[in-house]
Amino acid sequence: MGLIVQKFGGTSVADAERIMAAAQRVVKTYQAGNKVVVVVSARGQTTDELIDLAYEVSDNPSTRELDMLLSTGEQVSIALVAMAIHALGYPAISFTGGQVGIITDSYHTKARIKNISTRRITEELNKGTIVIVAGFQGVDADYNITTLGRGGSDTTAVALAAIMKAERCDIFTDVNGIYTADPRLVPEARKLSRISYDEILELASMGAQVMQSRSIEFAKKYDVPIHVRSSFSDTEGTLICKEGKEMEDIVVSGVTVTKDEAKITIRGIPDRPGQAAIIFHELAKKNVNVDMIIQNTSANNLADVTFTVSKKDAKEALKTAEKIKEEIGAREVNSDSKIAKLSVVGIGMRGHCGVAEKMFSALAEEKINIQMISTSEIKISCVIDESHAERALRVVHHAFQLDKIPSANLVTHH
Amino acid sequence: MGLIVQKFGGTSVADAERIMAAAQRVVKTYQAGNKVVVVVSARGQTTDELIDLAYEVSDNPSTRELDMLLSTGEQVSIALVAMAIHALGYPAISFTGGQVGIITDSYHTKARIKNISTRRITEELNKGTIVIVAGFQGVDADYNITTLGRGGSDTTAVALAAIMKAERCDIFTDVNGIYTADPRLVPEARKLSRISYDEILELASMGAQVMQSRSIEFAKKYDVPIHVRSSFSDTEGTLICKEGKEMEDIVVSGVTVTKDEAKITIRGIPDRPGQAAIIFHELAKKNVNVDMIIQNTSANNLADVTFTVSKKDAKEALKTAEKIKEEIGAREVNSDSKIAKLSVVGIGMRGHCGVAEKMFSALAEEKINIQMISTSEIKISCVIDESHAERALRVVHHAFQLDKIPSANLVTHH
User: Fold this and answer.
1) Chain A to chain B, count of Cβ pairs less than 8 Å apart?
2) Which of A69, A72, A86 has the CB atom closest to B58's CB atom?
């Protein structure tokens, strides 16, 4: 008899009908002979509504009191899910994060789990009870209620699966699984049956719709297989797991495009040591997260540095770049927010050449100019003009034949 | 520096504006040099909305899960009140019932407080912090969340005031205080500046609009002065306290009328011992609460028993009475739900005669027939026809000159 952790997101428990549907899924897993721990998020828009309430009484609510407030969202959900399971005739009991001993540090609204006491959960599971745990929350050493930040319920689910040595952690959400590309942009995109932790981390911009990086990193560390699947259908989703031999034969797993970055270039930087350090030190001081960085030196001993930042940080980054330009005596600063970043990801590309070439050729054939390139061991990213984003995604998806079944999806070995 | 407990009911924290007003009251008390513990109820209709949610997923929700659900209402309120006090620039911290160690028994939805650990509250008060505690809730020995039933926030406030030896417990509500009669029915009704615990307990049907009997019993036991006052104005309310010498000079404190009872009569009961026991044992078995009981014997050795029950229990009571009639061989059963119960209450009537006479005369002058009479040491109740209820209330209020200042409000000593 195995233990399975099942997590239901906000849309999966938004109303009574969906709560009943979630309860039925849980019961089905229980009836199959499994012990089941259920982790639930706040219903639908509850968290946003609670935040609105807070800002009605305070411009700057204390994070401790925000956690006190927000944690009620999940508490409502767990009680309702337990009642729904009872209504189906099965034993269930709900617990807050504090009640099952999810102990965190004291960084309110972004706490990290330090320890989980499994005594109470194990006791109930051994009695044959389905255990419902509030996601997103814990308590610190003084029993102050804390929350785990965005995607916190996934973290709760994965952490419980890790510490309870669960067979699997099911993440029920509003998508069918992980696709080779966003199916809204690439109709022929194919659902992946498996993907590795590293790939899903690299596909962050795609994966972010499904799970936050933090919970995937946790799953990777403790080797918890995650099954991402739809709460609205019975079809199999995507298994996120550690890479297997067969996965390495698949060169590219997915393509993704994001338009949420802007590009800033500082031109004519005197080419002496330490200039890059100055630039990125100043940006870090302003809390600007830099993604891609490229630098090249022109003939007259002047360097150009280009980097991308998220669009929301672009204004601050530009201001900082202008200031740095003055300090280091660079020539000019340009910025462009009409860019897109196209990435191909695949653990298989480590063992294969020609991936970059195939990607660049596909773009060249379509006369799409590449502005920046950056690579990691399992990812190649190109910055292109924003207007080409969707077309570029489709041609690269097609070039790697990602709509075909995986065995056909190999580039030539060189 | 004294300690004052201030309790705000649901209407007093219904929206952001009222929460700010409540916060201002608390701060004013704090600025006056007091330590302040604030007890808060769920906002406005929150509890009813949560109950509706429960019944959407289950016809018969488990009481443990109901408590898990309902306790979130107060948790939302305490966070918002703490934020509001912060916004005014004062230190405040919110706690759930469990966090301040309000330990109850395990009777979910109607738990009783067994113990309160004051350590955490005292620590924060000594730091100069305003402490906000969620009303209505506690935890049992296993840290399951419990709720205290109707009026539970009052119980929390009074219990905290008792154990912390507070100077006073302020109950902020939507009425100005306790009146000699319901001001909606008797425009000349006068607000009482003081009333004894015993009187307010007898005036239950009037007092119920303000506080539940249970919290008043608690206040009486621990001698906690309660100041019932409006959260919408600065006028003094009514102090509920133990009776003083001066209070005994006031014969009658208030008059009240209620239409929520029905009368049932079993006629022609063979007059032998044990018949009354059979009747009220059967009613108790059906969970029917009986209020007034009168019995008299007619010439032919047959007795008539009349009793009143709350209107909601009338149908069940009538059915039971019919069954009893058959069993004991009584003649007939009548019922009448068009009745009103008029009561005068006052600790002073213990030392004075003529109260009953004055009440009966006032009704007789108005040709209002009295159907039943029942008396306690500090209360006289008459059952009359429902159609006379408001008129009877006014004439009796006038007869005892309750609109006049208390010193003029004495009946003749016999």
Assistant:
1) 110
2) A86
Cα(B11)–Cα(B45) distance, integer angstroms: 9
Question: How close, in Å, is residue A312 to chain B by CA atoms?
Answer: 28
CA angle B102, B108, B114 (to 5 degrees): 35
- My answer on whether A160 and A281 are in the same domain is no
Q: Which B-chain residues 274-333 have CB contacts (< 8 A) with chain A?
A: none
| Nearest CA-CA partner of A355 in A306, A406, A311, A414 | A414
Instruction: Compare all CA atoms of chain A with the CA of B21 and give the residue at the minimum distance.
Output: A57
Among chain B residues, the shortest Cα distance to A22 is held by B57
Going through A41-91 in order, the beta strands assigned E by DSSP cover none
Element of type H or E holding B393: helix B389-399
Judge whether A66 is closer than 8 Å to chain B, CB to CB.
Answer: yes
Give A53 to chain B, closest Cα distance, Å: 8
ipTM of the complex model: 0.82
DSSP, residue by residue, A390-409:
HHHHHHHHHHTTTTS-GGG-
Same domain, A361 and A250: yes
Domain-embedded: residue B179: no
**Is any Cβ of chain B less than 8 angstroms from the Cβ of A26?**
no
**Is B194 contained in some domain?**
no
Do A252 and A112 share a structural domain?
A: no
Listed by number, the residues of chain A in 362-381 with a beta carbon closer than 8 Å to a beta carbon of chain B are none
Note whether A382 and A272 are same-domain residues: yes
Its domain, for residue A135, covers 3-174
**Looking at the structure, do residues A258 and A364 belong to the same domain, yes or no?**
yes
Kindly report, residue by residue over B107-165, the tens digit of the pLDDT: 999 999 999 999 999 999 999 999 999 999 999 999 999 999 888 999 999 999 999 99
Residues B61 and B161 reside in one and the same domain: yes
- Per the structure, the count of domains in chain A is 2
* Nearest in space to B193 (alpha carbons), one of B133, B142, B122, B253: B253
- CB of A91 less than 8 A from some CB of B: no
CA B409 to each of CA A40, B355, B400: distance values in angstroms, whole numbers, following the listed order? 63, 12, 7
Structural domain contains residue A227: no
- Residue B51 contacts A where some CB pair is shorter than 8 Å: no
Q: Quick one: A159 and A276 in the same domain?
A: no
Verify whether the Cβ–Cβ distance B57 to A93 is below 8 Å: no
**pLDDT (mean) for A324-348:** 92
CATH number at residue A123: 3.40.1160.10
* pLDDT tens for each residue of A236-262: 999 999 987 777 677 899 999 999 899
Average pLDDT value for residue range B184-212: 82
Question: Does B1 lie at the interface with A, CB-CB under 8 angstroms?
Answer: no
Say whether both A258 and A134 belong to one domain: no
E strand or H helix that includes residue A76: helix A63-87
Question: CB of A51 within 8 Å of any CB in chain B?
Answer: no
Domain boundary among the residues A128, A154, A174 is at A174
pLDDT of B209 over the 80 cut: no
Residues of A in contact with B96 (CB under 8 A): 68, 145
Residue located via tokens 């201001």: A319
A356 touches chain B (CB under 8 A): no
Annotate B104-146 with DSSP letters as a single string. Answer: E-S-TTS--EEEE--HHHHHHHHTTPEEEEETTEEE-TT--EE
Closest Cβ–Cβ partner in B23, B65, B145 for A83: B65
Read off the pLDDT of each residue in B30-36 and give the average, rounded to a whole number: 97
pLDDT of A49 > 50? The answer is yes
The CATH number of whichever domain residue B311 belongs to comes to 3.30.2130.10
Which residues touch A30 (CB under 8 Å, ≥6 apart)?
A36, A90, A130
Nearest to A219 by CA among A166, A171, A149, A162: A162
Distance from CA of A18 to the nearest CA of B (A): 10
Q: Are residues A66 and B86, on separate chains, in Cβ contact within 8 Å?
A: no
Look at residue B332 and tell me if it is in a domain: yes
Domain C-terminal end among A123, A149, A174: A174
